[in-house]
Amino acid sequence: AVSWLIFGTLYPAYSSYKAVKSKDVKEYVKWMMYWIIFALFTTAETITDIFLIPFYYELKIAFVVWLLSPYTKGSSVLYRKFVHPTLSSKEKDIDEYICQAKDKSYDALLHFGRKGLNVAATAAVTAAAKVRQALTSRLLRHTPA
């Protein structure tokens, strides 16, 4: 787990930082391809983690090393041969789906936001009424007759 964290996430994150800082477009593109492959792998991994494969973690580390290696250029190979062509052919559909999801989530956010504000306002009014009632009864108890 520590190796995965270091080699799969921290080292690539730091290398990405260095690429952005140096403004080296080649390095930048290389690390963007890595992160795209890494995100897809991490997503697929949530499904494959349920299978008990012998040497699973060792294979995972080997895969990340293969992705990172400047000799194998694994993330570049996977990106150029599989990910880019697939995303290019489905880009319009994906963009449309994302746009619909954004619209639906915005509508849902407004709906739940209104409900949340109504609940909060009701709670505030109820609390204020209770405070007022408590203060009134306290004042009446301490008022000389």
TrEMBL record:
It is found in: Membrane. The chain crosses the membrane at residues 32-57. InterPro entries: TB2_DP1_HVA22. GO terms for molecular function: microtubule binding. One of its GO terms (cellular component) is endoplasmic reticulum membrane. Its main location: membrane. One of its GO terms (biological process) is endoplasmic reticulum tubular network organization. It is a multi-pass membrane protein. It comes from the Eukaryota. Keywords: Membrane, Transmembrane, Transmembrane helix. Belongs to the DP1 family. PANTHER family: HVA22-LIKE PROTEINS, RECEPTOR EXPRESSION-ENHANCING PROTEIN 1. This is Receptor expression-enhancing protein. It comes from Scleropages formosus (Asian bonytongue).
